[in-house]
Structure formats: structure tokens, C-alpha cells
Amino acid sequence: MRANNVLALIHAQEGETALKELTAIRTAASVPFGCRYRFIDFTLSNLVNAGITQVGIITRNNFQSLSDHVGSGKPWDLDRKREGMFILPPFNTATAIVGHDSILSSLYSISDFLEKTRQEYVIMTNANTVYNIDFNDLFKFHSEKGADITLLYKQGRVPSLPELMILDLDEESKVQQISMAQPEDVGNDANYSFNILVMRKSLLEYLVRAAIARGETSFEKDVIQANLSNFKIYGYKATGFAETIDSLQTYYNVSMSLLKKENRDLLFNTNNPIKTKVYDNVPTTYGVTSKVSNSLLADGCTIHGTVENCILFRNVYIEEGAVIKNSIIMQGTRIQRHASLNYVITDKDTLITPKKQLSGDASYPVFISKGITV
Amino acid sequence: MHILSPYQKIEGTEWYKGTANAIYQNIHFIDKYSPTYVAILSGDHIYKMDYAEMLSYHKAKKAACTIAMLEVDWNEASRFGLMLCDDDGTITEFEEKPENPRSNKASMGVYIFTWEKLRKYLLEDEANPNSTNDFGKDVIPAMHKAGEKMVAYPFKGYWRDVGTIESLWTANMDLLTPSSGLDLDDPSWKIYAKSPSVHPHFVSDKANIKTSMVSKGCEIDGNISRSIIFANTTIEEDSLIESSIIMPGATIKKGAKVFYSIIGENAIIDENATIGAIPEKDASNFGISVVGENTHIAAGSFVAPNKMIDEEGVEVDIK
To answer: Which end of chain B has fewer beta carbons closer than 10 Å to its terminal beta carbon, N or C?
Structure first.
């Protein structure tokens, strides 16, 4: 199977209840990450780097910031005359009987889109995974195994997400058993599914129609788990950088892991580059009183204070005497004179006024919402 | 946008002989649009200007040619093409880099012409075998001599021609001096550019950066002051960069020192090499050092001030 013969679907909303602080004003797909990216950049880049030319982004609500970010798809070469990128909002057909309140119902409501696209295969992805992967390896695995469905999984700490599938695999990577993660499983080591999977498009259409006809609601339980004995389901193990963001704490930890060079080299692999919307920002300016160490900085920042173990997004302004440590400071935030921040995440456009002291903990960073003045 | 390269004619192909000849050879291109006015600009000037205002001025003055004018420091005036104007802004006389300037009104090399007029003088200029086919030297004086209405449009703000090594270096350093008036971070007047899609820059705990600008994709472990660091550069630990410009993709290895220099794209300055020097008080033969693109400077070697090294390792004097 060639990548060109695979239709990509991205569930832009998936996993966002787990990240409620950051998704109150945006989709999970458009959560800012790593100084200059949004979650969806990783998925979109992986898809186009593999050679996929047709991408449908399934949205539910709150997707203004997402459409603003992806635009016509130009940064990913998806602004094509033939095929390209499509945003698929809910209730888009006259006969829509279901919205996009679940993966299953949204797949059903985009039946027309699935039908009119020419690709034989479909890769279904989410927007809460930060990863760099060559999907061609996944496609090759799927063909070689003669699989009906291949699930991308990771061996690691089970994230706290609803309807998360835990896989039991045999030596041939064939899935023997699928169990839904229970609260007591969270944090344990297991093979868990990213909810990124490949199958024939006709099979997906058939399974979705059948599940809807039976009045079922869960894609994972009623489409995948229930069909384990009917189809050949395989697991493909993700290696390299692949992290599921299931909470603000995970968001913080995964962001901070980028301060290690080996992680940056994996995630920002130059052979499989992560593309994003480009802004025409000036480079970052360091003043004579600046003191920056072990930090990642986007363009357009102005630094006069002390920055240590931080992630700074675009256009952040750190005034003289301000001390920022172990923090993630999003776009447009200004931190005024002699303010002090430790273990803080600020959303976009916040203002920290002079001499304010904010401190969280490595295990519980303080979150400041978008546009707030402290 | 069209790029009009030379050597496009069916017969008698030739390079552009001068700035005016470059326009002459593209008369057919301009005629296709039958414009009323034409703006002629340079690609190696650093400035922010609203050309629409200059055009309104040109129209209001009913001029054949409007030249953007900057009042420069009298001490520096002799380095420029100067204009003498009457109270109305009409140019009465031109002086090209005079030893004893009578004016400090310098031409910025930014022109708006009424196309009908310019076309006529370009044809005449081409027919003149003694002409060097240059705007400043030939076409503008010819128009003036013929009595065309020529006006100076007063411009205020930052402007610099970066056609020399020294001016290129100075303009970059101006970015670090707010009082220079050069502000690229103006949301109402953004400067657009092709921007590489690379990760943010990383500053390690060994790095020390003061009064500098750093672009995306860099990995910084060294010491940097008063310098401009372009995208995708690697600055290793214990290196020292002072008052320099490091262009995209360059690598400054461990212990290397770079003073008052321009390091070209993808150049490698190997361990403990030294490029340039810090100028002493009376340094008559001091100058910026330049390492050309893709050039490898061997470990421990030295490039003197005022020298330029290219990819083949050939060293030349700059001044």
C-alpha cells in the first residue's frame, strides 16, 4: 500500500477533556506546544512526510483557533488543486442525524466524505499525540502482516484517558486481547493504543454503519474490541518520540523533556521535519541584563531578566529583574520587573505585573489562563 | 512578482551594462502594463518606507522624477550623492560625493518617475555612446539638464545602503542599538521574509548571551555579546563571539573566537581558531574580517582583521 492510496482522518477534539485548562478556548489539535507548534502540526507533518495527500480534520466545536492555524494547509503543502486538506465540521449534511460528539458518530456523519475520496485505505489519527514517526513503516507492517486493522501502540505508562485500549499481543504482534483501561491501570506499564490505526476504507465504512445500526456509541469498544475475533488486528509499536498528552501535568513533563538534546533530535528529526504556520517574527533579542540557561526560545522574544529551564513561545517579553524558572510561557505574555515565576504555565497574552511571585511545584505547575493579568 | 534576468533577448544578448540599462532592456516588460508611474528601488537598502506617500508627493508636485532624500550628518555628507533644493523641494543642483559638501540632502537611490518621461530619457541614454547607463550618473543629470521638474521627497527614519562589508556589518549592529532607529519589530510595519521551518533555538546552561539577537534552529553553548546569530547555527562551548554576524547554518566550534567578523552561511570555524580582532583605539588598518560561505577554517588558525577568506582558502584584503 502506497501512502498516496491512504486517506488520513484527524480527530481534532480527541482527548481534550483531559486537558481542560488548555482546551477551554481551543480544540486539542490547536493546543500550543514546544515554543512554536500546535499539537496538530506533529500529526500533519508525519502524514505529509509519508506522502499522504488527502487529509480530513474532524472538528466538533471551538475550532476557530484551529482553522486560523491550519489555514489552507499551505505549510504542509496541502493547499493542492487535487485533494489536500479539508475541515469537516459537524452537522454538515442536510440529513445529519448525528453530530461529532463521539468518534463513532463523527465517522458516521462524514460518510459522504469517505465515499467520495478515491483512497482505498484510511489512517485514523488524533491530535493529542506529540510524535515523530514514519507512517510508511506502519503501512509496510500492515501489508506484510496481511492485517485487517493495525493499531499504533506504545509500551509505557498508561495515560489517563477514557476508552483507552490496552493490548495483549502475541510474538507476531497480533492482538490477542483488548481491554479498556480502568482507573487502577493508569500509570502502570502496558501496551496502550494511541487510537491511531490503519484499515481499508471500505472496512471502516462497513464497521461504522453496522455499529450505528445497532445503536452503539463507542468506537473503541463496539467497533474494535467487539470485532477482535472477526478480523486480523495487529499492533505496531511506536519507537522514537511518541507521547500522549493526557493532563496538564503530562503536558508540562513532555514539554520540559525537550530541554534534553536527545529528545529534540528525535522529535525535530530533520529527515522528517515538523512543519507549522510561519509567522514573520524578528529573532529573539537578548538585552545586556539577560541571563538565559537551559531553555528553548521561539522567535520574537525580548529578554532582559533571568530565564532558567524554560520554554518560551513567540513574543514573550521578560523585563529586567524578572526571574523565570522551570516554566512554560506562551505567546505574547509579558513578565514585568522583579516578578518571579517558578513551575508556572501561562497561556497566551497573560501579564504578570511587577514583583508578583507565583510558584507551583514540579508535580503541580500553576496554570494562568489566556489573557489574565496577575 | 517577476524576476527579470539579463540575457533574455533573441539577438545581441548582453548583461545589464548599468542600472539604467537594466531598465532599458526591460522597457517592453514595463510597457505591457502601460503604467503612469514607475518606482525604481534598490535591493540592498535597509529602511521602512511607505511608497504610497512618496507617490502622492510626486503627483502633487507634478514632477517628472521624485528622489527620496535623507538629511545626513554633515560630516558624512561627502560620501553621498547630494542634492541642492529650493524652498519648494525642487532640485536645483546635484553633487556627486563632493569633497566640500554644500548640502546634507542625500539621495537614497529611491526614485519615482513619470514613465512617459523616463522612457524618453532611457532611449536617449542608450543611444549615447559616451553614457555609462547609470541612473545617478547619466539619466538623472540628463533629465535635470533638459529642465525636467525634479523634486526631493524628504524621508525621515532609518536608512542604510548595505552594499559594502562595513555598512552591512554596521546595519546589523544597528539592530542592537535602539537609538539607531532601526526597529524590525513593529507590528504596524512588518518585514516579511522566507522563514525556515525549524525548531526553536536552545540556550544551554553553558551559554552566556548579552545584547544579541538569536534566530530559530540554533544550539547555543558559547558566549555571545553584541552579535547577530542567524538560523540553524551551532555555537559550541567555550567559544567567544563578539560584535559579529553569524549567518545561517554556520558552526563555531569549541574554544573558537570570533571578533568583529561576518561568518558566511554554513562556514565552520574549527576549534580554537580566531577570526578578526577587537579594534584598538588608533586602528587605521582595522577592518571587519569575513569568512565566505561553506568555508572551513582549520583548528587553531587565525584570520586577521580586514581579510576575507573564501571557500578555496584564498585570502584577500577587503579595503
So the answer is: N
3-state secondary structure at position A211:
helix
Asked if B87 reaches chain A (Cβ–Cβ under 8 Å), the answer is no
Domain with B28, as residue range(s), is: 19-161
Same domain, B138 and B28: yes
Judged against a pLDDT cut of 60, whether residue A201 lies above it is answered with: yes
- Chain A, window 289-308: residues with a beta carbon less than 8 angstroms from a chain B beta carbon: 290-300, 302
Q: Higher pLDDT residue, A90 or A92?
A: A90
Chain-chain contact of B201 with A36 (C-beta, under 8 angstroms): no
B239: closest CA among B263, B259, B215, B265? Answer: B259
**CATH assignment, A3-267:** 3.90.550.10
Q: B150 and B27 in one domain?
A: yes
d(CA B285, CA A188): 70
Kindly report each contact of residues B119-127 with a partner whose C-beta sits within 8 Å and lies 24 or more positions away, as own/partner.
B119/B27, B119/B30, B119/B31, B121/B146, B122/B20, B122/B23, B122/B24, B122/B27, B123/B24, B123/B27, B125/B20, B125/B24, B126/B21, B126/B24
User: SS3 for B308?
Assistant: strand
In the prediction, which pLDDT does A317 show? 97
Q: Is residue B107 part of a domain?
A: yes
Element (H, E) at A136: helix A135-145
Question: What ipTM does this complex have?
Answer: 0.89
Residue A97's pLDDT band (boundaries 50, 70, 90)?
Answer: low
Q: Please tell me whether residues B145 and B23 are part of one structural domain.
A: yes
CA distance A177 to chain B (A): 40
pLDDT at A324 over 80: yes
Q: Which band of pLDDT confidence, cut at 50, 70 and 90, is reported for residue B259?
A: very high
* Spatial contact of B207 and A286, defined as CB atoms under 8 Å apart: no
Is the domain of B122 the same as that of B233?
no
Inter-chain CB proximity A283 and B229 less than 8 Å? yes
Q: Are A346 and A330 in contact (CB under 8 A)?
A: yes
A-B CB pairs within 8 A amount to 94
A130 touches chain B (CB under 8 A): no
Q: Is the pLDDT of residue B12 over 70?
A: no
d(CA B247, CA A116): 49
Determine the residue of chain B that is closest to A280 in CA distance: B192
Rg over alpha carbons for chain B, rounded to the nearest Å, is 23
Superfamily of domain A285-368: Hexapeptide repeat proteins (2.160.10.10)
Asked, for residue B138, whether it belongs to a domain, the answer is: yes
Q: CB distance from B146 to chain A under 8 Å?
A: no
Distance between CA atoms of A67 and A86, rounded to whole angstroms? Answer: 10
User: Is B213 within 8 Å of chain A by CB?
Assistant: yes
B229: domain CATH number? 2.160.10.10
Question: What residue of B is the nearest CA neighbor of A45?
Answer: B197
Do A298 and B216 lie within an 8 Å CB cutoff? yes
B11 pLDDT above the threshold of 80: no
Residues of A in contact with B203 (CB under 8 A): 292-297
